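Field: COMPLEX_INPUT
Field: COMPONENT_COUNT = two
Field: RESIDUE_TOTAL = 940
Field: MODE = joint
Values follow.
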Amino acid sequence: MWFRNIFRRKPLQTTQIATSQSLHALALSPRVFAQLDRMHIRSTRFIRGGGAGQRSSTRRRPAVDFREHRKYVAGDDIRFVDWKASARSEQVFLKQGEQPQETNVHLLIDTSRSMAWGKPPKNHSVLQLAAALGYLALSSDDRLHVVPFARARSPENSEAFVFKGKGQFPALWKRLRSFPVNGHSDLQQTVQRTSRMRRGGLVIILSDLLDIRELNQALSMLPRPAWETTIIHILHPHELEPVLYGDVQMEDVETGALENYDVNAQAIENYNQHLKSWLETIEMTCVENKAIYTLVSTGWSLETEIIPHLQRIRVLEPAR
Amino acid sequence: MSVSFTTPLALLGLLTLPVIIVLHMLRYRRHVFPVSSLSLWRFLNPQLSGTAPRRIPLSWLLFIDLLIAALISLALAGPQLDLAQTIREGRHLVLILDTSTSMAAVDERPSRLETAKGEVRSLVSAGIEQDAVTIIGFNTSANTIGDSRTEGPPILLNRLGEVRAGGAGANLDAALALARASIDPELPAEIHIFTDGAYKAPEFSAFDIPLTWHVYGSSGNNQAVLAVQAVVLSELRYQVFTRAANFGPDEITRDLVLSSDGQALTSVRITFPPGSSIVQTWEMTGSARKVSVHLLGEDGLPLDDAAFTTVEPAIPDQIASDRIDIALVSHETGPVLRALESAPNTSVQVIAPEVYLPGSRFDMVVFQRFLPERWPGTVTLVLEPPPESSLLGRVSAVQVSELPFPQPDLLLTDVDFTGVRWGTVWVPARVPPGIEPIMEAGPTRLILHGQTGLTELVLLLAQTSDENGTPTAFARHPSFPVLIANIVQQAAGARLPRQVAAGTPIDLPDFDHAAAVRVVLPDLTAVALGTDRSSRAVETGTPGFYDFTFTNLEGRESHISVGVNAGDLAESNILPGDWPAQVLSPPSPLTTTQQPVSLVPWILAAVGILLLLEAWVSWR
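Field: COMPLEX_OUTPUT
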């Protein structure tokens, strides 16, 4: 009858929260692997590393590839004495070269519930991008720390997983897929735990940054030159250009709070202005803390848009 | 044109409209849209946010729901569109149909009467729904043929179909009086008169009801046998007189044929000058019972081309005796005895009251200043009742000076007591039931007449002679013997006439003389009237011989024929005479009324369509 329509609940017309079952289809394609094999994550030599790696460092050692001289001291290997330079002087000089090192790459992945919003959800893009960046780190013999961050009841949400070597990529992929998506974003606590590591390293934060109150404090814990921080801001296209209209009741997927709004053209215009202001605030905070900031839409393709974009802003660079 | 509501209170249902709007707002509030974070939206104008949407969610569904609720409320209120409609008001149609003989004229095919009946039928059919219709027929008298208020139109039309022309005379006054009496005072009346106008037009100046005339007939070419009479000259000779007339404008020659007992005896060729009448006499040998005269050929009214009569006396001994035996029970033999003896065919026997035997067989008994213990069971005349009796109780005397006021009664035929000084009048304490006054003077009853048991009783309460035996003014009045003769005639029983005019009913003898009656009509149909007969007369419409067979109480039969003749000086002249121009009544008034047309079916149909539309909008 006519009145049944009043109580009939219409199907939602906006984006849905995705489930983890769909993550299996997000594996990187061979073409992406081929693309990634030709580049690596850019970092400065001032980052303190350790062990044997492929990254340049400020550390020196007697080597054939000449970087600089130093005076010979007893016990040095005489094979590295620069006899010609020593002949022109009254001292014996030893040839020194650069000692390559490994770098700690920290991938801080936002696994709060808001990352599961959108269609496709934002964590799909994050999963692919984290896999790509992890692959690059493992290819460069870096020590990869994958840290999901969200204020959740499960301890898995704050545990750091360490990977080393290219052969660890399948384990990395499996781990990435297993991260639950729930709870609130907890960036400050996660950064604080990361900053306790003495050596420093590359920190790449993948988040929608919907709670920016702690962003400044978090970034201040990762000072240069020991830490090089890159923030990749992941947003859904509908967050950049909302499609809602009319009298709606909005539900915050993280907090469950409900609010009623009358979304009209003026409201959309105001939304765009405030969105722009919000993004500028985040970028300014990053600049002040010497962090690299970039905005990535989940609507972008990893192969054709995200990786070239990261290359363009010099987060990635061609391999030597 | 306006709209009204039968149940305006149902319009309160329109209060459901805000409820539907609220339900729609509630429904829209239930739409929850998940967002990644409300922080992105908190900057919105606070005036636009709240706990519930403030704007009415305009949608097709809301519009249809509101429309459906409004229409249902409207339908419950019973809206009516009052359309101005011009209709003819119901009326009472009184249709007066002339059934006299002249209406059988065939100058209008099939006849004037049938043509008139066709128009009557059309009027009845046209007003069958809203009109009341009364059909009255008239010739020598007027009678109601049918009335739609008491019987259905089919019965009315059936009775109309049975009407036949017959009857000499056109008593239009009686018909109009009957029409006026039958008019429904609640309805506008309209009287239609269907006649050929072959009679003198009555005066209508005082008639206040619209009359519409339907006059038929144009040709006056008619010849008729106006009269026939057969007289027995001797045992084997009889004489027949007849009068024939030509009412046409041209001279015409026709053969006049004499028939006896169904056999043509002789004929004579007669040339009629225009507007003339001719007497023809035949002296015939032999004996005959029934004689008829016919005009051969055709004319405008075939019905009056023959005349019929009987030769022998019409009253056989078994029905009525030639002498009326009367017993006068009285000590006086003054004016009463003289009046009784002056009546024709009477044999009066004076009996002293002391020797009167109640069981004596007389055709009539007259009691003067005496009354027996019980009524004698025959025609009884009571004159000057005694002061005390068991039949009338105590009788007192009053003086009467008012003028007498007579009632219509056969006993008062040719009786006129105007100017009589009544003097003393006897007033009985009680009057037998069934005895009604036929003449009164103020509150005092002078003459009473009626049937009580087997006795036909006449009470003559005026004094006829004083103490000295001198007749009073009443007894000396010329009308007194006429009144007595009329009473004696009542005692004589019925006498069938040898011939009557068509339309005149033939009175039948009472039950004592004819227990059973069988009549063979001119069209050879037989009608049997037994002991349960309700009518005391036989209607005569069709001319010809009406052959009666009477059976008395002893079982003996007697046969009498009565000739019924249509020829009449007035009726046979079928040419409408000095008749006024046709008068037409004004047309029936048209009335503008507000005809309510219910809008509920249309509204419900619209609701049905809207429901289908809503279903389509909802499920598409």
